[in-house]
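Here is one chain, start to finish.
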Amino acid sequence: MSKELTPFSISAPGFYGINTQDSSLDMNPAFALEAVNCVIDQYGRIGSRKGWTKSATTSIAANIECIGELIGNDGASYILCAGGNKFYIKSSATLVELTYGGGGVAPTITTSNWQFVSFNNIGYFFQRGYDTIIFDPAVSTTTYRRVSEKVGYAAPGLGVTYIQCNTGISAYGRIWMADITLDKNKVVFSDLLSGHVYTGGTSGYLDVAKVWPNGADEIVSLAAHNGFLIIFGKRQIIIYEGAYDLATTGVFKLHDTISTVGCIARDSVQNAGDDLIFLGNGGVYSLRRLIQEKANPLRDLSKNVRDHLKTDIDTDYLSNIKSIYSDIYAFYLLALPNTDEVYCFDMRNPLEDGSARVTRWTGMSPKSFCQTRGRVLHIGQLNFLGEYSGYLDNASTYTMKYYTPYINFGGLSSSSILKKISLVIIGGSGQNVNIFYAADYSTNYNIGTVALPAINESYFNVSYFNNNAYFTDGISLSTQNIQAGGAGKVIQFGFETTVNGYQVSFQKLDIFTKIGKML
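Its structure:
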């Protein structure tokens, strides 16, 4: 008598994200060994990421390496960009080059790895070895200038080179700057509400050379969080309290230090609601609960992909690493130029160990990010300013991949005979889904192919005056089955499809096996 089929189901496959750190033999099947060009959607499904479209049709012969939004006092929004050693402003659907509007000779600019800060109706650009650049719409919306050319400018008493800073933030009514060309241990702060005044009033500087808890270090980045000023060194972190009230003696003072981890990439630091995220030598970290708990409980968001992430990080490219936190999409993106990859950290709910659900993106190649007040996630690209939108990469398709861990169906004492694979798929239109499966750690996969139904873009299934889509059938839901064969102690499954303009999500995976011979 034939044996009955034994079903094995994975609801919301890949919901835990990628895990390349733990042993794949005993791994929870909710993890994925690969999840490429995927996100974890709001329903807990693993689905295709969005692509990018041009938000400005103007082409420049360079990467757009910096994007920022300035909100004027009148509520006007200005989207500013830097690339190819020039500055641009987005005007409708075009990028218009800003010209130098200051006195004398224009600054000679040979790199565009700027950091943008918006403060009190003025946009500030910081980059190592260059005077701070400002965009002041009250003076001109077509030009840029040096900050030293701002009316009322007051140079820091430390010297003019102290405005050549690589990092800056606007917080607590001031501009804070650091990573100075000639001094890696000073933080310069402006006068209250005057980002161009560094002498007099309540302006000043911090010298943290003797504050580092574990020997000499250098400042990489700054952040403001929960009323604190966070100073990131390469290997350590310093936290000052009272930055919101420098005028009161004794309020602005050292609050805490962390001697075990620092930040290695300026643009990896992002405020994420009640959290602060950054890239350290060991991976992507969170400073959550740091202020409440003196033990400094750093949370390693990248715990499940730590070794792969560390391999993908090349020290030669640290200055070009970019990131963004989007509260709209609830993810933190970390773009690595060395491998042309993006690590996507889902920030909705952490796993039990405090780590984040992680997927990887390829093919998009972002050079910078900016999320605007109008809920647009801008992406700097080679030649173009783009936005995270649609399900094509600038009109080109891309491949989505999901591979399960190795699954043991029959226990340690018997093999499993694979009979049928059933996959519930949401979305897609007309493309094939390739289903891969292999036993006992073999990389010689068997492949089955299923075709997703095409979305009928018509008006009640009849063309509307021969025009293109009037109404659509909506997002399709289909169950795709293949008959499979082979046997093994453990079996792995993979699913690949071409994203061709429609979102695709994997809802449920059902696997049917029979118990094979005893081992």
